[in-house]
Amino acid sequence: MHDSSPDDISGIGADPVAFETFYRRHVEAVGRFVARRVDDPYLAADLTADVFLAVIESAAGYRPDRGSQIAWLFGVARNVIADERRRAALRSRVTGRLAGRRELAADDIARIEERIDAESAARRTHRALAALPPDTRALVELVAVDGLTVAEAGAALGMSAVTARVRLHRARRVVRAVLARPTAVHARG
Is residue 11 one of the residues assigned to a domain? Predict the structure, then answer.
């Protein structure tokens, strides 16, 4: 039966119809989230799929009292991306260069490249956030880039709303100072 509330996603790991509904509702948001953090269309496609695989495995642990679905979903996506970065760093140290990417159709590559291009300003902002501690940087990203409330972002990161507000206030001062610096103009000759 599919009479459960749309807010109750705990069963989507065992219910293909519920999962498909959840996937269709959130795939674009997850794709944008990933594209803001990754500039390779193959990796962006793979990570977006990996996020939803992780959702299937962890949906039973979703607790609506700790935050919205999108906050939880972005927390899952953040963890998937962080795991991939750790794996890539290890592979890079061990093997030098990654190979064996799966084939994507030309339309898929074009769509993902368009998404990556559309998110280039957000990637510049992410680079400006490099001066912040990782948890604080993630908090700023979830609020300023991904549109979560401070309380939702705090919940996604396992911190109280008060702690999140204080860290966000301090972080905004640091980021404003970094972004206020003039940017170098890149000339090609």
Answer: yes
What pLDDT sits at residue 100?
A: 53
At which of 92, 118, 144 does a domain end?
118
pTM: 0.58
Residues 103 and 160 in one domain: no
State the CATH number of the domain containing residue 67.
1.10.1740.10
Distance CA 55, CA 143 (A): 21
Same domain, 30 and 77: yes
| Domain match, 166 and 84 both | no
Residues of the chain with pLDDT under 70: 1-7, 93-103, 120-128, 175, 178-189
pLDDT value of residue 12: 86
Q: According to the model, what pLDDT value does residue 84 have?
A: 92
